[in-house]
Amino acid sequence: MEEKTKVGNYRWIILSLVFFATTVNYLDRVDYVSSEETLNEIKLMGRKCEQVVINLMAEGSVQTVVNKAIEFSGKVDILINNAGIIRRTPAIDFSEKDWDEVMNLNSRVVFFMCQTVAKDMIKRKYGKIINVASLLSFQGGIKVPSYSASKGAVAQITKALANEWAKLGININAIAPGYMATNNTTALREDPVRSKSILERIPAERWGTPDDLQGAVVFLSSKASDYINGHVLVVDGGWLAR
């Protein structure tokens, strides 16, 4: 895939969990980028870690990933659904291929990862699931119709599953990052007009960085969030407050 997913976001999410987890499984994304640095950092902390390189849009990949996680650590306590891609094209020219690929990875895979992991979590009546939504779960965006639709779906999937699984001991919530300095936003940050307009609206007056998500991830992964279900936690420097 040409588009990059939230490489920076996922790295800091993983590292933030390592501080209070003893075992971590993580996947490499559709557009594979070597993650040896992250792997080595985790091992230097004295934690066990296994990396799985897989195309999540391939048939049967979700079950394969979950099977490997359970084989490695015996169970899954926390799932972070962070894989995602984006296509930037005016809606009038948007292709079926681009639409289907974005919807597949960003929403279909999210649902079935939740479903597959929940089958293990339900056995113990415990689990934390964090889906990665977006500001475009609330807004329409520009030239990214499939991304907006897919992230709207992520928010609704999160709420729908919380309605069914909260009573089973599973907390499922989502984080909606604002405008973050990651590969996904390279085109925006390099456009002086768009970048200026975005920064003028953010009360914090800066692009977010992946480590801005650490607190939200740790909170929603811990017992401190045991009575929080179906919530979409926005981490946006105040963007939606404007």
Record the SSE blueprint.
Blueprint: H1 7-18, E1 23-28, H2 36-44, E2 48-53, H3 61-73, E3 78-81, H4 96-124, E4 127-132, H5 145-165, E5 170-177, H6 186-189, H7 192-201, H8 214-221, E6 232-235
Parallel strand pairs: 1-2, 3-4, 4-5, 5-6
Helix pairs in contact: 1-8, 4-5
Query: How many structural domains can be distinguished in the coordinates?
Result: 1
Q: Helix/strand-derived class?
A: alpha/beta
Mean pLDDT: 86
Low-confidence stretches: 1-8, 18-24, 26-32
Helix content: 40-55%
Question: Strand-and-helix sequence, N→C?
Answer: HEHEHEHEHEHHHE
Main beta sheet strand tally, sense and closure:
4 strands, parallel
Strand element count: 6
The number of helices is 8
Question: Based on the structure given, which CATH architecture is correct?
Answer: 3-Layer(aba) Sandwich
CATH homologous superfamily placement: NAD(P)-binding Rossmann-like Domain
